[in-house]
Task: structure prediction
Amino acid sequence: MNNHLLIIGGGAVGLTSARALLLAGYRVTLIERGTTGREASWAGGGIMSPLCSWDYKEAVTRLTQRSMGMFDQAMNELHTSTGIDPEYQRSGMLLIPPFQDALATQWCAEHQVAFRHVALNDQLPGMQGEGLLLPEIGQVRNPRLLAALRRSVEKLGGKILEQHEALRFDIKGGQISALHTSQGVLQADAYLVASGAWSRTLLGEHALQLDVKPMRGQILLFKFDSPPFSNILLQDSLYMIPRRDGHVLVGSTLEDVGFDKATTSTGYNHLLQRAYALFPAWRNQTPVQHWAGLRPASPDNIPTIGRHPQLTNLYANCGHFRYGVTMSLACAELLLNEIENKPQPLPVDEYRWRE
Ligand SMILES: Cc1cc2nc3c(=O)[nH]c(=O)nc-3n(C[C@H](O)[C@H](O)[C@H](O)COP(=O)(O)OP(=O)(O)OC[C@H]3O[C@@H](n4cnc5c(N)ncnc54)[C@H](O)[C@@H]3O)c2cc1C
Result:
C-alpha cells in the first residue's frame, strides 16, 4: 500500500481527493502554490450538474450522475464535521427558451432525471412562455465549500503546505523518488497531480497524452435584498445562480486565451447585456463584483483519473473542465479504487492516462 500521498494542488479536486484518502486511512500532504481554493474552484458557479447534460458523452454523465448522488450525504457530513456550511441546496434549474425540448426531455427520461414543464410566469412574474424545470439539480457556494474541505482535511490530520510550488520530479527505477518545490525537496510513497489547468505544464514530458489546457471563464455578481428567484436559470449558455442571501451570479464566458486570468470589459459587457435582455428591470442594477478563473479544459470534458502508464507511483485527477466541483466526489472515489486496485463502480476506460 502507498501509505503517504503527496497531492499537488489545493482546489476542489485536490482537497476532495485528500479528504477521501484520509478517510481511507492514508497519510496525506497537500501542497499548493498559492493559497488553497483560490483558482478555478473558487471562481466557479457551483452548479452541481452539467448545464445541458444531453450535449455531453456518457463518460461525462456517468461521473456527474454518480457524484450528484453523493452530494446530499457528503455535504451534510462536511457541514456537521467542520461547522462550515457549504450552502448546498437542491435549488432546481429552470431552462428558459430557446432550448432543445425533445432532446432534453428524452435524455431526462432515459437517465431517470426528474423534469416538468412549467409556465415561466409562475416562477418569473411577467415572463411569457413555458420552461423546463429540473427540480433535483443542486448548487454549492464555492468559497464556503472550499473552506469546509480545507478544515476537514486538517481535522483529519492532513498536512497542507501553502506557498509551495511543485517544480519538477526526480525519477528512479520507473518511479517518482522526490518532488522539488519552491521550498525544498519533498518525498512520499505516491504523488497525485491535481493541479487543474496547470497539470500538463507541471508534468512536462511525463504528461504523455494528458490533454489539459486553460479555458477562461468570467462571472458577474449582483446583489439584491432577497433572492429575486429561487431556481438556477439557464438560457442558452447564460446562467444565473441565486444564493440564499440575495447574491446572483451571472455567467459565464468560455475563452481560449491561455493562462490569462484577467477580466475584460468585453466579457463584462457581454454578460451584462445578456442579463439585462432577460431582466430589463435590472438596468438600474450594477454588478458588485466581476471575476475570472481558468477551467482545466480537456477534450469532450472528460477528466483523467488514474495511474501514470509508466511511473507506477504517479497519479492524476485533473482535466474536469466545466464540471470539476460536480464531479469531485465520484472522481475521488475512482482515484481511491485505482490506488487500492479495487473494482470500479462504473466503466473507467475513458478516464485512463494514455501513453
Ligand atoms: C467561471 C467558471 C464557472 C464554473 N462553473 C462551474 C459549475 O457551476 N459547476 C462545476 O462543477 N464546475 C464549474 N466550473 C469548473 C470548476 O471550477 C473546475 O472544473 C474545478 O474547479 C477544477 O478543480 P481543480 O481542483 O482541478 O482546479 P483548481 O481549482 O484550479 O485547483 C488547482 C490548484 O492547483 C494549484 N497548482 C497549480 N500548479 C501548481 C504547482 N506547480 N504547485 C502547487 N500547486 C499548483 C493551483 O494554484 C490551484 O489552486 C467553473 C469554472 C469557471 C472558471
